[in-house]
Design goal:
By secondary structure, the chain is of the alpha+beta class. Helix content is 27%, strand content 43%. The chain has one domain. A hairpin with a 4-residue loop joins strand 1 and strand 2. The longest helix has 28 residues.
Length: 194
């Protein structure tokens, strides 16, 4: 009898240990979007943003987009002027939306931004384009004063509210559908006007 109870306890202990390890690893299945770098550069039309992100959708979202579920991404830029005597003054904001979908008939991934679109043979190629932004005009030169310090922030995120309705409910409860999007903040001091 003691042999039986010892085996059951060991088996129960190993099952509990495996379940704990699986639960601990579950948050690792979710994806993440981390900003690597971002810069603002003066151009003729205004200031342009160049940014790079490390994008990992996670296996669940990669499978979903491959099966035809469109994913919406949002690039958000914000520029504020900090003030010690009052809340920060909002200077400029820019929002750009991307739609990533797979077409099973052509076996290509389509990335849309506004009225423009581009097709890609692999998901990795499409994600490479989403993860890099260059020469995006974000505000006019007249919006900032040379020599003053401004606070800039940029973020790329998955817009779960644009998922099909049945998946929105699952996205709230299931960590596999959640992509952690971090914000990159930095100080920006515009140079003298030329």
């Amino acid at each position: 009898m003691t042999v039986f109870s010892t085996r059951c306890c060991k088996r129960l202990l190993s099952v509990c240990l495996a379940a704990c390890l699986w639960l601990a690893a579950a948050p690792l299945l979710a994806g993440s979007i981390e900003p690597q770098r971002a810069t603002l550069t003066a151009a003729e039309e205004g200031y342009t943003l160049a940014a790079e992100f490390a994008v990992d959708l996670g296996p669940r979202l990669e499978e979903a987009v491959t099966r035809g579920v469109p994913l919406m991404f949002v690039l958000e830029f914000d520029l504020t002027h900090p003030r010690w005597y009052w809340p920060s003054e909002h200077i400029a904001a820019r929002r750009l939306e991307y739609r990533l979908a797979y077409n099973a008939l052509t076996r290509q991934y389509r990335l849309s931004a506004g009225g423009l679109y581009q097709n890609f043979g692999t998901l990795a190629e499409a994600m490479r384009v989403i993860s890099r932004v260059s020469d995006l005009i974000v505000f006019d030169k007249a919006a900032v004063k040379p020599g003053e310090t401004y606070s800039a922030a940029v973020r790329l995120a998955l817009d779960r509210s644009q998922l099909p309705k049945p998946l929105q409910v699952d996205a709230l409860a299931n960590r596999d559908w959640q992509v952690e999007a971090k914000i990159l903040r930095w100080q920006f001091v515009p140079g003298e006007a030329k």
